[in-house]
Structures are given as C-alpha cells and as structure tokens.
Design brief:
Strands 1, 3, 6, 7 and 9 form a five-stranded antiparallel β-sheet that branches. This protein has a four-stranded antiparallel β-sheet with strand order 2-8-4-5, with no helix packed on it. The mean pLDDT is 97. Strand 4 and strand 5 form a beta hairpin. The chain contains no helices and nine strands. The protein has a single domain, classed as Jelly Rolls (Sandwich). It is mainly beta and 107 residues long.
Length: 107
C-alpha cells in the first residue's frame, strides 16, 4: 500500500458546482481537512457535495455560512472518498471563497 499526502485547491470564481477532487481509479482518498476561506470582506455560504461512481449526488454541507474575512473548517472527522467519486464545492456568490482540502491518497 502506497500513501501520498496531498492537497486540492480551488478559487470559486463562479456560482457553478466546481470539482475540488476526483479520486483516481484504484485509489481511495481520506480527507483530513476541508477549509473554506472568505477573502472579499463579505459573508457567503458554501455547499459541498459528493458524487458517487453511479452519478448519485449526496449533500455533505448545504448552504454553510462563512463569515466575512474568516476561514471555516468544514470537517469534524475524516471523509473517505472512494474510487471515481467526485467532491464538488459551490459558492453562493462568485469571487468570494477559496477552498483547500488536505488528504491522503492510498493505492
């Protein structure tokens, strides 16, 4: 078993669902941290979903508040993202939020 420590980053420049991470074939990822940072001086909200390999979308965080000029840790416990699953993030307003996820990828 091989493990790699990595991070995924995205600047939410639109209000469309944006892929933060897709688990590669034959791998599993364990997210240890999922940070949302507001950098425009205006409060906003974030929605986080997980799409499984069959295309079913599961809500993880729905319209979660992020206060102006703050950073919020969304995860209280590790999140396992299995092969071919997609972690997506959506901002209520464009150009306000950055998201950084720290994870371990296992093959």
């Amino acid at each position: 078993m091989t493990t790699f420590y990595k991070n995924a980053k995205v600047d939410l420049t639109s209000t469309a669902a944006t892929t933060l991470y897709t688990t590669p074939v034959a791998k599993v990822a364990v997210f240890k941290s999922l940070l949302a940072s507001e950098d425009s001086g205006n409060a906003d909200t974030i929605t986080v979903t997980l799409t499984n390999a069959a295309g079913t979308v599961f809500s993880l965080f729905k319209v979660t508040a992020v206060a102006a000029n703050t950073t919020v840790e969304l995860l209280a416990q590790p999140l396992v993202v299995e092969e071919s699953e997609i972690l997506k993030v959506t901002a209520a307003t464009a150009n306000r939020l950055h998201v950084v996820g720290s994870y371990v990828e296992i093959s």
